[in-house]
Amino acid sequence: MTLKQLEAFYWAAICKNFAVAANRLNISVSSLSKRIGELETSLGAQLFNRSARTATLTPLGDHLLPHAKELLRGADLFMQQAGTHLNYSGRCCFGVGELTSWTWMPQFIEAIQRDHPDLRVEPFADVGHLVEDKLEEGELDFAIIGGPSSRPAIASSTIGQVEFSWVGTRRALGRRGPTLPAQLSELTLVTLPHNSGVIRILDEWLTQNRLAPGRTLSCNSWGAVAGIIRQGLGVGFLPSAWAQLLCQRGEMVLLAEFPPLAPLQYCFEWRRDDTRPMLESMRKLAVETVDFHAPSCMI
């Protein structure tokens, strides 16, 4: 039995399918199957039932999975104890939301490459629920998205927060004087769709202020939301760093009369069944580099 065989078994067991597991290990599906087959031969029993379209764990495989996880975790801890600084190698696949990708993600990647030069970093950016889908299916090592996860299989740790400012344009506001919150019923609200993490704080804000927009225009991209507001097609809120820059340029105006929204907490997320020490190293680097005021080349 080898660590490579145990890795093949572990990832094949927790990922959506063998193809995802092979991709995580940067090997072919045939190499993955070979390693699992060698492990099964050494055990004298099957770990996977391959009669169905998707391989599933046998009762023995299900019984041995937590032991394989502990052995792999022990190997990581052994390497940590062998030196003062463990240089991780292989692949690190992580997911982020759009806002992170446009602000501090480059600094985060630089910090990972500085501390772990042999680790190949592969970021994936998308809306939060799609990032969580990939994390839950085993395609990602961890994720950094807005709001703690509500999924039982995913653990969350807060690493920072984003503050927002209400903005609009002279075109959207017409000839009004100072725009009051009550006038929101006469305006189009430009925002992200209902499955975004910011919708919870928007709903709380609307409820607290007993308000309702006249019309809603939603899009799943912060950049698109900023562009739609800048075009004068409605009002909305943006990360404060973006809002301040666009207002300084004269492209938008702050809606100073609008009460502020609550900040959105951003979390480092990982699968609860994944106890690798590497994840704690990545979380610490994320805490050190998180900065939602970092300049964006897109604004």
From TrEMBL:
Is-annotated flag, keyword ATP-binding? no
Residue ranges constituting the HTH lysR-type domain according to the UniProt record: 1-58
InterPro entries the UniProt entry points to:
LysR_HTH_N, LysR_subst-bd, WH-like_DNA-bd_sf, WH_DNA-bd_sf
Query: A Gene Ontology MF term for this entry?
Result: transcription cis-regulatory region binding
Alphabetical keyword list: DNA-binding, Transcription, Transcription regulation
What Pfam families does this protein map onto?
HTH_1 (PF00126), LysR_substrate (PF03466)
PANTHER family membership: HTH-TYPE TRANSCRIPTIONAL REGULATOR, LYSR FAMILY TRANSCRIPTIONAL REGULATOR
So what family is this one in? Answer: Belongs to the LysR transcriptional regulatory family.
Protein name as it appears in the record:
LysR family transcriptional regulator
Which organism is this entry from? Answer: Bordetella genomosp. 4
